[in-house]
Amino acid sequence: MISGSWPSTATWTTPNCRNSAEQRLRWLEEALAKSDRPTLIAIHHPPMKTGVHFIDMVGEEWYRGISEALARNPQVQLIICGHGHMELIGRIGAVPVYMAGSTAHQLIAGRVKDRAPAFDPSRVAPVLHQWLGDVFVSGDNPWPAWVEEKRIDKSAGVDWAELKDRMRGSLKP
């Protein structure tokens, strides 16, 4: 999920994942050349090595090529991906990469050692990627049904605006 007033344009056309790394990288370069505004890339397969051998089968040409494309396109602020059914955070150069866990099941896979994985039926909370005007902030964003009755302003019996002022103390605007 993406939140915030995001200034970039989006393209929903994606290359066929059966295309060669060269074809996918050419498509990415063409898409990035359309705008220099802050950009988020959403991609299925992790664009970086994960340490899980059977996920890291895309090939060195892809990893090297995407790193070079990002170096030429400083407007890219964040890459989000899935496929791995596990949460993993990394970087490609200066660009953060967030691989989300699955809302279906998690993959328990040996990182470093090449072992057969297992699946855990646990689900993860949805992740919110929020654009704050000049940077993305990412993290899970659970908002359970009971939250209204447990809010700190209600339990303190104090208006939220007043409680924020108290919490800020000397940092009040």
What proportion of the residues form beta strands (DSSP E)? 15-25%
Strand order of the largest sheet: 2-3-5-4
CATH architecture of the largest domain: 2-Layer Sandwich
- Mean pLDDT across the residues is 82
Counted up, domains total 2
Q: Radius of gyration from the CA trace?
A: 20 Å
Q: Report the major sheet.
A: 4 strands, mixed
Number-wise, the strands total 9
Helix content percent band: 10-25%
The low-confidence parts are: 9-13
Q: How far is it from the N-terminal to the C-terminal residue, by CA?
A: 30 Å
Q: Give the helices and strands as they follow along the chain.
A: EHEHEEEEEEEHHH
Top-tier CATH class of the largest domain: Alpha Beta
Number of helices: 5
General form: flat
Would you write up a description of this structure?
The protein has 173 residues and is an alpha/beta fold. It folds into two domains: 2-142, Transcription Regulator spoIIAA, CATH 3.30.750.180; 143-173, no CATH class. Helix content is 24%, strand content 23%. It is built from five helices and nine strands; from the N terminus they run E-H-E-H-E-E-E-E-E-E-E-H-H-H. The protein has helices at residues 21-32, 60-71, 147-150, 152-156, 160-168; strands spanning 2-3, 39-43, 76-81, 88-92, 95-99, 106-108, 118-120, 127-131, 136-140. A hairpin with a 4-residue loop joins strand 8 and strand 9 (136-140). Helix 1 packs parallel to helix 2 (60-71). The model is unreliable at 9-13 (pLDDT under 50).
Task: Please give a handful of descriptors for the protein shown.
173 residues; alpha/beta; Transcription Regulator spoIIAA; 2 domains; four-stranded mixed β-sheet; three-stranded mixed β-sheet; 5 helices; 9 strands; flat
